[in-house]
Amino acid sequence: MLTNKSKLGEGAVHVLIGILVFGSIWGMIEATLGGFLHLIIFPNKGAIMAGIGMAIMGSALAIYKKPNMLPGIGAVAAAFKLLSVVFFGWPPASIHIVNPAMAIFLESLAFGIAATYLLNKLAAKDTLARVGTGVLAGFISATAWVYFAIYVMNAPAYARVVFTAQEFIANQGIAQAVFCGVFLPLGYMIGERLAAKTTPLLISRRHHYAISAAIISACWVVAAAITMVGTYAGT
């Protein structure tokens, strides 16, 4: 009985570390590449970043096979938006923080729910199921986000061009669904290959913790540095 409890504890810690690692990688990419695409007003930047986030979650799902960890990954990635509180002085409830953070979290929540029901098909190397799951999660999360942005955060008042929910869904919603449908199979495949090459038996617990801590720390340092550079560039 004590052994079972010990294994459960180790399993929980293993999953928690996975949430922190994959969430930090996603958050760092949002702060670097996402920030750059936003700066140059790149077309479909939101859909592109959603697709990358879907690939990262797909890799995590392929390794851990635990859909309930996906919203945690999204929450960690969304937390990187709080760097703007430190470097830009925005209040935590600012639309510039809440809206992108919610976009990330809603995507992870939608994918987590979909993966709960479709995990067997995703694990069975069913490419059509992987594409369809990405499309479904991408479209649902985009739809949920635009209604939140408009009716909770009043986003059109801050946008360069006033938009309606229907217009957003017909354009960005479709684009996000497509990118998520393309990136999820790629991310899942990468995760499968990583899982096949690296198992807990091949790496000591101490090394696993050290490597994970290094990755998490590096992601936060890089994201903070890039955000700081953006602060100085804007002054």
Compact summary:
The chain has 235 residues and is an all-alpha fold.
Q: Which features does this protein show?
A:
235 residues, mainly alpha, 2 domains, 8 helices
Q: Uncertain runs with pLDDT below 50, 5 residues or more? A: none
SS-derived structural category = mainly alpha
Q: How many β strands by DSSP?
A: 0
Domain unit count: 2
Radius of gyration: 18 Å
- Shape descriptor reads globular
Q: Give the rounded overall mean pLDDT.
A: 88
List the helices and strands and how they pair.
Blueprint lengths: L1 H38 L5 H20 L5 H10 L3 H5 L7 H29 L3 H25 L13 H33 L7 H29 L2
Describe the structure.
The longest helix is centred in the N-terminal third of the chain and has 38 residues, at 2-39. The protein is 80% helix and 0% strand. It is an all-alpha fold.
